[in-house]
Design a protein that fits this description.
4-stranded antiparallel β-sheet, alpha+beta, Muramoyl-pentapeptide Carboxypeptidase, domain 2, 6 helices
Length: 164
């Protein structure tokens, strides 16, 4: 029996559409990983590089919008839109000049992988690979991303800590 608890709190039409788009992206990621694995290809390093590269692109865009890219409060304002906060049911969000802490109470990516029937170990691996995007964003911003608890690991939420 799965230990993963990933319950979506209601949002609104826009939030639900965004969740569906993220699920679709995660479905692609999961199926590409699965097909590469079935073909005998070591998919993990390839997928990690591609996702981190994508994260670095997003990080450059976020950094360009920040008045003070060295201030985590400014980073938060340009990284976490109201839609993103709603989509991942993020609360609480705590920030100061050197830290951004955010808890996700729902993950559309994990939802997609569960719907595909992936076991917990695969969901955990896919989650960690997906987080390479956020690690890439952090890297560009001159930050480190701490991620000890995740929904994919069976924790009640994902606890992200971006810090200097």
């Amino acid at each position: 029996m799965s230990q993963i608890k990933n319950i979506a709190n209601p949002t609104d039409v826009v939030g639900d559409v965004n969740r569906a788009q993220i699920e679709h992206r995660a479905t692609w990621m999961g199926l590409i990983y699965d097909e590469m694995k079935k073909a005998g290809i070591d998919a993990e390093p390839i997928i990690r590089r591609a996702i981190k590269r994508c994260g670095r692109i997003h990080g450059e865009n976020i950094k360009g919008k920040c008045a003070d890219p060295k201030d985590c409060s400014d980073f938060k304002d340009n990284f976490l839109s109201d839609l993103v906060i709603k989509t991942f049911d993020m609360r609480p969000i705590k920030t100061d000049k050197d830290n951004l802490n955010v808890d996700f109470h729902y993950c559309a990516l994990v939802s997609a992988w569960q719907k595909l029937g992936f076991d917990e170990a695969t969901c955990t691996l896919l989650c960690d690979m997906a987080m390479d995007g956020d690690r890439g964003i952090a890297e560009v911003m001159g930050l480190t991303l701490g991620l000890d608890e995740t929904i994919a690991k069976g924790c009640p939420d994902c606890k992200l800590h971006f810090y200097k």
